[in-house]
Amino acid sequence: MLTFWIRRPSRLALGLIVLGLAAHPAWAELYKCQQANGQISYQQTACADSAGGGALAVDTHAPTGGGTESKSQDYSIESQVQAMQAQREQALKERERARKQAETEARRSRTSARTEHDPAKCAKQRAEVAKWHQKVLNGYRTRSEKELNENKRAYHQALMDRDCE
Question: What is the mean pLDDT of residues 80-108?
Answer without folding.
Answer: 91
